[in-house]
Amino acid sequence: MRSAPTPPGGPLPRGHSSASPAHGSPRLPSLAHSGLVDHIPQEDVERLERSLPLVPWQRGEDMPAPLRLDDHLYVVRAGMLALLEPASNDHMVMTALLETGAIYSTLGNARPPQGLALEDSVVSPISGEALEALIAKLPRLGRNLAEALSDRVAMLRETVAIVSEMRVEDRLAARMHQLAERSGVATRDGVKLRLALTHSQWGLAIGASREAVTSAFGRLRARGLVSVVDREVTIPWEVVRARQDERERRDA
Fold first, then answer.
1. First and final CA of the chain: distance in angstroms?
2. 57-77: b or e for each residue (b if 16 or more CB lie within 10 Å)?
3. Is 5 a residue whose pLDDT tops 90?
4. For residue range 204-233, what is the model confidence (pLDDT) as tens digits?
5. Residues 6+ apart with CB under 8 A from 221
6. In this structure, what are the phi and psi dihedrals at residue 48, rounded to the nearest 5 degrees?
7. Which is nearest to 57 in space by CA: 77, 43, 37?
């Protein structure tokens, strides 16, 4: 059972960060900051990082061909990606948001996903054959990958429940809370989402039209459930706590 989040000064909710954006030139984050290399010696992590290929993916551009090959694992090294799947109504639905250290896969010749770069990003493709060799050298990497894929499955279950909500505003609120719990930033006023999506992109995230999302945001703001300034979304602390209490009562 998750503990209730607290404002700055106390412990942060799972997945939240209090770090401020870095200033100056962007640089490629180390995989050491992701769970993918947990319990792997630092020298092995550095050797792994040097060995992996890097494919840039500029925001708004089509998915590069090297990032949709069969039988590959893909590691997000920087930026943020959205994975998309077509729904039965011919609309696209955002099934996952991938930040630095996250993965997606076509291993076993799974169909490559459709994607969208929400920020300028860098991705490392790893062939199935190369992955087998890496796991032979670093057995712990295999377990870490299994845990990462388990987390993806759990998030997909949550997403299915979210897009099954009848009202657009309920789907939108649930999706924002899901993202806040996983990667929100604790601020004085609440938990701020670390992404600035357009209303069309929020529509992809919940399976709704841009117009429906705009109306839903208006209703949520009017009820004090969310604050939006220049696309930056903040969920007030009292709303975060109320939702946490509701989940704990449901899970009890």
1. 9
2. beeeeebeeebbeeebbbbbb
3. no
4. 888 888 999 999 999 999 999 999 998 899
5. 227, 228
6. -60, -45
7. 77
